[in-house]
Design a protein that fits this description.
This protein has 371 residues and is an alpha+beta fold. It has helices at 15-27, 34-47, 58-68, 86-92, 112-121, 139-148, 200-210, 237-247, 250-268, 300-309, 335-343, 355-369; strands spanning 51-55, 76-80, 82-83, 97-101, 124-128, 156-157, 165-166, 169-170, 177-180, 193-197, 274-275, 283-284, 290-294, 315-316, 319-320, 344-347. Helix content is 38%, strand content 15%. The protein is globular. The relative contact order is 0.18.
């Protein structure tokens, strides 16, 4: 890793974050407290949802939300097949059954046509689309199908999609969505998650689940009123302070990432054997990752190795979850996801990436695939 001088990602921190961190350290309270509340309020103001609940991770947020919606042992949840495995793990850890929905080859997102077939074949208790790499799903059609299926709740895995927009609205503004602040995401505080929703009852349930069942309110040292057995999925004030500072710079960070993506678009447009990411009209991509698809016959893993020798860090897109050992399906019902796991390639992208480094990546990719 030390020889990779063009990393896959690099967080964007400024004086805002350093000052926020200094303030919280001087305040003498670093566990969940007022800075987490400020972070939640900043997200509500930015995205336009009524409520935001900070959590220790996006995975915790998915688990909490599904549990609050009543997902229990034996319940079937329709979930995108091409995603980070924790999306499906949140279902399984509650005793639910993931029903994997294959994806579109061009957007990498849940295919509504396949979802419609699954809704006809299974009694589905919830739908979990994933805005993969920051590219918004076809939410209009997914919501129509959920309504037709009996008002099936939708839980959006928006881990990569902070700042992504669809038809002029932020992802997370008009539904229940969960974001990630892991180090590779658009905004980061090291680790952490945020649930946005417009449902007051759900938000209250989530706060109980996050805080070990403690009734919100009171001072930090008062005797607690525990209403139910629950988890400890709290975020620290250290993370909250950094997160709030990051939210204040969202447009700046998104703009910088979009410029890098635009450079890749123009420089890779005519490269044989490489298919660029596809965005639907009216959508705004956050560019958490810039993922291309390599032509069948190109050894993707060999390309990663060759680029690493040139000092360039790349990686595979993500997983076909039904093909992982965790689920061990002998024959995948999601052939597109299976193909994409072996043909997608994530290129370096971060706000401070220089044009000369983008060109190095482009040149290195062309040499690695032999064009």
């Amino acid at each position: 890793m030390s020889n990779l001088d063009i990393p896959l990602t690099r967080p964007s921190f400024s004086g805002h974050e350093y000052n926020a961190l200094e303030d919280v350290l001087k305040a003498g309270w670093d566990s969940q407290g007022p800075k987490v509340v400020e972070f939640e309020e900043a997200i509500v103001k930015k995205l336009g949802s009524r409520y935001a609940v900070a959590t220790s991770s996006c995975t915790a947020g998915l688990y909490m939300t599904l549990g609050a919606l009543g997902i229990r042992k034996g319940d079937k949840v329709a979930v995108s097949a091409f995603t980070w495995p924790s999306t499906a793990f949140a279902i399984s850890l509650l005793g639910g059954i993931p029903i994997f929905v294959d994806v579109n080859e061009d957007t990498y997102n849940m295919n509504p046509i396949v979802l419609e077939e699954i809704l006809g074949d299974h009694d589905i208790s919830a739908i979990m689309p994933v805005h993969l790499f920051g590219n918004p799903c076809e939410m209009k059609r997914i919501k129509e199908l959920a309504q037709e299926g009996g008002k099936i709740p939708i839980v959006e895995d928006a881990a990569c999609a902070i700042g992504s927009m669809q038809q002029g609205s932020y992802i997370g503004e008009n539904g229940t969505a969960i974001f990630s602040f892991h180090g590779r995401k658009v905004l980061t505080c090291g680790e952490g998650g945020m649930i946005t929703t417009n449902k007051e009852r759900l938000a209250n349930c989530l706060r109980l689940e996050r805080d070990m069942g403690v009734l919100p309110g009171g001072t930090r040292y008062q005797k607690k009123l525990f209403l139910k057995p629950a988890n400890n999925f709290k975020l620290s004030d250290i993370q909250g302070a950094i997160g709030t500072a990051q939210v204040s710079r969202l447009e700046e960070i998104l703009s910088a990432r979009a410029l890098v993506a635009g450079e890749y678009h123009s420089r890779l447009a005519n490269m044989a054997g490489v298919t660029l990411p596809s965005i639907r009209p009216g959508d705004l991509h956050s560019w958490q990752a810039y993922v291309v698809t390599l032509e069948d016959g190109i050894d993707r893993d060999a390309v990663i190795f060759e680029l690493a020798k040139k000092g360039i860090e790349t990686t595979f897109g993500t997983y076909s979850v039904p093909d992982t050992d965790a689920y061990g399906l002998e024959v995948s019902d999601c052939p597109i996801a299976s193909i994409l796991e072996n043909t997608t390639l994530a290129l370096p992208i971060y706000p401070t990436m220089l044009k000369r480094d983008i060109q190095r990546v482009v040149n290195g990719l062309g040499e690695a695939i032999g064009v």
